[in-house]
Structure formats: C-alpha cells, structure tokens
# Entry
Amino acid sequence: MTQPFALPFSRLGKKNVDIAGGKGASLGEMTQAGIPVPPGCVVLASSFDQFIKETGIDKKIEAELKKVNPKNIKSVDTASANLRKLIKGAKFPKDIGDEVMKEFLKLKSPFVAVRSSATAEDSSAASWAGELESYLFVTRQKLLENVKTCWSSLFTPRAIFYRIEKKLHKQRVSVAVVIQKMVNSEIAGIAFTAHPVTKNRNHIVIEAGWGQGESVVSGRVTPDTYVYDKKTSGIVEVNVGSQRDMIIQKTGGGSKTVTIPPANQDKQKLTGRQIVEIANICERIEKHYKYPQDIEWALEKGKFYIVQSRPITTL
Amino acid sequence: MAKEKTSQDVWMTAAEIPRNTLFMMSEPIKFFVQTWPKLGLGGKVSRYYSYFDGDFCQMKYIRREFDAQADYLSRKMLRQPRWAIQWIARVERWSAIFMHHSKRIVRSDLNKLSNRRLITLFHSSLKFQVRSHGVGASVSWHADAEKERVTKGIWRALENHLQKIGSQYDVVEIFGTLTTPPQTSYVSKEEVSFLRTAAFIAGRKQARSVFLKHSIDRIPEKLRVADRVAYSRVLRHYRSFRWLNYQYKGPATALSEYLGRWQELLKSKSSPVLMLENNLQTRRAVMKRQRTIVRQLRLTPYVKNLIMLAQRMVFIKDFRKDALFYGMHSYDPLLREIGKRVGLTIHQIWAMNTWELAPALLHNKFDIDELNARQKEAVAYADRKRYIVYSGEKAKNFLKNIRHEKTNYSAKKELSGTPACTGKVVGTVKIINLPEEMSKMKAGDVMVAHNTNPNLVPAMKKAGALVSEAGGLTCHTAIVARELQTPCIVGVAGVTHVLKDGDRVEVDATRGVIKKLK
# Structure
C-alpha cells in the first residue's frame, strides 16, 4: 500500500509528531489512551509535501523565502502575501482530496474544526503549532479550501519570521492539518491540572463559559472558576462569572456571537458533579502524560470532550 | 396587612458578627422567634432577620420588641435568679452533650460512612447545638445585651447591700472578683497547657535546642527526631485547642502559630515555669479573695443568688460559645465530605439552612444558583410561622421596606460606657474585630472592638486599655480585662464607628469616659 494522505486519530500516537504535527499526535495519543477526544483525522504532512511538489510550487516557495530579510518587516509581509496567494491559487490534488473526503464522511458530522499542526525534524520546534491557524464550523463544501488555508498558514508573517529566527529554514518544515468533529458546546472552557498562580500541584483550576470555548480561551469573557483538590477529591472554590454574550454555531457554517438571556447570565455553568467529572478526566490526562497539563474542553449534550491538551510551560 | 405593619416598625442592629454563616444562624433565629414563647423565655420578639453582606452578619430586631424582650428576661432573672440559674444549668448540660457528639464526628472515619449515617451523625449533634445556642442566647445574651440590664441590676443590688451593711468596699473594686466563676474557661486552660508544655520543653535539652536553632517550618521534623516525647506533647496541645479560634467558618489555629509562640517564649528571658506558677497563683488569689469578701459581706440569700447568677452567666457565656466553636470545627470535615459527595464547596454548604443538608445529600435536592446568590447578599427572616431566606433582587426588595433606626455618632468628641476595670490610660486606637487584624496591635495601644472573642486574646494582652461596643460586665471583654488588670470600658455605643485606627484617645475607665485628643 502506498503511504496514506490522511489517518484517523485512532491510528496516531505521540511518536507521530513528524507526520501529524504536535497537535495531531497529541490528539491521537489521547484517543488511544481512552480520553474522550472528539473523533477526527489528520491530513499528514506528507500530503502538503506532495501538494507543493505536484503543483510545482515548491521551487517558488524556496525562492520567495530566500528573498526575505528578517530585519526588514516589509519583506516578510510581502513574502507572506505572495506565498499564501500562491497556495490559494494552486489546484488541490485529486487523490489527496478523495482520501480527505473519505475520512471526513467517517466522522458523520456536518461541521468540523480544521486546524494546522506544524511539523519539524526538531520536535520541540513544533511548539509553534499554537501560532498557526484554526477554523470552526467548517462544512463539507468548504473543507478542502480550509485545508489549503491551513497549509498556507505555514507562511503567515509570524511563522516566516519564527522560522528564520529559529534557523528552521535549514530543516524540513512542513504542516499537517487536523480535521475534527465540531463539538457544538453549550459550555466550554479550559483546565489547568496544577494551579497556574499558586503552583499548587494538588489543585486543578477549571474555567467555564457559555457557548464555544474560544471566548474563554481568548480571555474575552469572565468565566466561572472552580478549584478542585486532587487529594481530598473535593471542590474547594467556586467563583461564578457574569457572562453577557457567547459564541455559537451559525446555521450553514461559521459562528456568531449572541446575547445570553438575562436569567442565565449569572448562573453557575457546571454543576458540582460535572466539575468533579471534568476534573477526573483532567487528572487522567495528567497521569498519562506524567506532567501538569493545560487542557481545552467542551460539553455537548451532557458529555465532556477534550479538544486539546499540552504541558503547562510556566511551572 | 402584614406588609403595612412592617413598614411602620423601626428596626435596629443588635449585634454584628463578622465571618458568620447562614448555616450557623438558621437554627437559633427560628428558635428565638418561634420556640422561646413556648419555653416561658418570653415571646416579645415576633419578627427577626439576619442580614448577610457576604459573610458579615447583622442581627436585626424591631427596636420595641427587642427592648420588651430584654426587659422581660432581665426582670424575671433579677426577680428569680434561681429560675435563670436552672436554665443556665440546662444550657451547660446541652453544651456538654453537644461537644460530646461533636467529638464523635471528629473521631469517625467519615469517608467510609453511608450518606444516611453522615446525616444521622450530624443530626445527633445538631439537636444539642440548637438547644445550647437557641436557649443559651436568652439568659446569657439577650437579657444583658445593649443596655446591660441584668448586670446593672446585680450591680445595684450589691450597691444597696454594701450601703445597708456599711461596708467600706466600692462595687467597682469587688464586682469582678465576686463574679469570677469557679470553672476556668478553655482560653485559660489553653494558656495553662501552653505554659506547661513550654516549661516541659525548656527542661529538655534536645527539644529546647530545636526550638532555639531552627525556623518554625523545620521544627516539626527536627523535634520528632530529637525528642519524641516533647513532639507528642506539642501535637497534643495543638489537637486539644486548635478549634478555639475556629468560630463559625475557620480557619483553626495552625501548628506553626503555636510553635511560633513557644519559640518566642523560649528565646525570651522569661521563665515558663515562673509564668505558669504566676498564672495559677493569680487564679488562686482571686478565688481566695472572693471567699474572703463573701464572708465579710454577710450576703442575704437573694444577693447571694444574684452573685451566683452573675458567676454562672460569665461561665456559660464562654462555655456555650466554646461548645459552638468546637462543634463548628467538628462539622468542618463532615461538611467537606458531604460537599465532596454532592459536588458542593463548603462555602456553598455554609449558605444552606441546616435542614437543607439532608435533602441535598440524600436526594440531590438543592439550588446551586440560590446558594451562590446567598453568599453575596442574603436576608434570613423569621416570624411566628415562617422562616424565609431572600437573596438577590428579593433581598433588595425586602430591605427597601425596612425602616431602620438612625444612628448618628459622627461629631461626638466624648464617648461613654460602663467601666469594667478601672484605670486611666492615653493611647493610640486600634480597631480589631478579626484575628488577622491583630498584627496592628502594639504594646500599650487602645484596643477597640465590637465585641471580643477568645481568638482576640493575644491582642488584648498587648492592650493598654480595652474598649468594646457590646457590653455587660459579664461580657468577654470585661472578663478578660479583669483577668489582665487592664483598664476597660464596655457598652460604648457606636465606638467602632466613631474612632479610627491611629486616633489618640484618653480612656478614663474609672468614670467610663473616652475622650478624643487632638
């Protein structure tokens, strides 16, 4: 069998950072560990490589990057605009497209999240994954277009700058794309399995807000904050935040911001039992990775999903 | 119609209790309004509410009713001291049983017990908490609150008696000695145990050097290795008394605080053995002086009963509070265990009425948003038939219909109260109502408090004079002041509002006057 273009999470693990990127490998790893990750697949980095080779833009990319002078920000911007336009205009290879579609249909979800997941030979360099892009509530019609946009996010001005700064241009840098069932969350948020402020490793700090998790992640709303104690298995603190608006799914794709009914604005988002449930899941993730984790989670129809997990870098 | 009546009544604040919980207050206030009439303790209070601003609690009565109830109780107590003494004996018994049941909670392996068993354990203790506190508040608080009716009555009776027999004594000189109860309070017990332990450590070379050489956080491990006996004595003291400062929601005293006190003492020049001897000696001297005075005064049976009543009031005031703090401290792990099972924090449970605990644990019945709202602001209202907690908008609406008596303390330069221990002192004011405020106190400062509690004693010991808003010669401030021989004025209306930290004042505790100096 020839090398696949896309693989489901269930067939990926932490050793696959080189083909699935940091984010993709981590989602595969968690799926295999039995953590409730929304199902999905990764368009492997090799697909991107084949794409630029097949369409013949690989040479052009190299030439464009050589022109960049990191001391001149304008040259970075120009290169970025040129490269992204180049990728946008290139034709999506049919064999890759077919396989991606096949994996998409397996997810049985009208909407998916599409995120880029960078790869590099030096895996620690792939921590710049966070710098790349993600698109929510993507429909079937827009799927391949968004995969391409994710590919081109390898050439945002920041990414180009970072690549030169870290001397990554000598390395083979590539990008995988994560396609994941979109969780249409009523409540979502983040969790730290060690207290980020007090550094107490017995505490799990959970933040929760109404709607999609983006508003909590970006710090746009004041979320509820819960503190759970691993030692006593009890909730030690509940602080309810007041939330005026939330991000939800727009019919037909994309997302929108709506006002929350006044009666719900000051409500506690998660019940005590739900706080304990998500805390237990987070504890499992931490045990699996043997290091405190920074986790994104979502709650849809009473079921918790883990959208992302990465080590807390500030401890 | 009921609403109209409410708007005409003038309400007053009878007490302010920082760091309180709805959980603790829910039972006694129902008792005050609904049960006292049935027990013959007076039924003058038909409506009451606790106002919670966060965890700061104010006890609210209708002025007319509060005074009528205090009149009723104080008159009955002064006319029939034996009646009051009997009630106090019951409160003492209930408080002791309450402590006994609380101890059972502490000794239980809570996480192994079924939900039902946890509730049974709680209820067996609660039953006596309700009686101890619910009844105790009548004869040991309400009767003597604000205007010190009972204290003043006993004072006058003693004064008349002294005149009649032509005694050379003045009441001020002997009142404190006469009203000292034979039992020692837990605060004094702690003091003695603390000094005993200090004396023990001082006599053991290894243990002593651990305290002198190491920082407080390293003492436990070092001491355990160096001297196991001393180590276990230290721990015993800590376990026996750590609840004393817990009050209604903690925290209890940390081991490090005791270690710090021992370290300070061992590093100082004073000898713990002498201090202990002194402490016991003083106490023996007071009791001896009491016996002498009683003999000299040829008390009539009635005055004798009044003195006995005063002693019992002083005693029960501390004892029922100690039982309450001990009980609340024992509930702490129980409530946390229940919280763990239903997914609530202990703060959310403290926002419950006690009777809401069983439905929450057994049937998962509770309203989490209501519990959160109560923690911000709440009114717990009781009348003869109802008990209702209002929060959020409902609490605001309730308060809109309340007419509150106006208190205007602002421009006063001189304040007055009842002298509790004589002397004249000039000093700097420090307002102290909570243990964490005690660090402000410097030796010789004038400590001003709403009312004091055992957990403020360390600051009281540093004070050049003590002043409290709450009164009664049998109130905690007065008792401690007499023990320490510190000039003291109690029952000074509005003092915590008029004086500020840093004010220079002259406290004339012989006349009972506080003067603000320029």
Summary: Chain B has a mean pLDDT of 92. Residues 414-516 of chain B form a domain with the Glucose Oxidase; domain 1 fold (CATH 3.50.30.10).
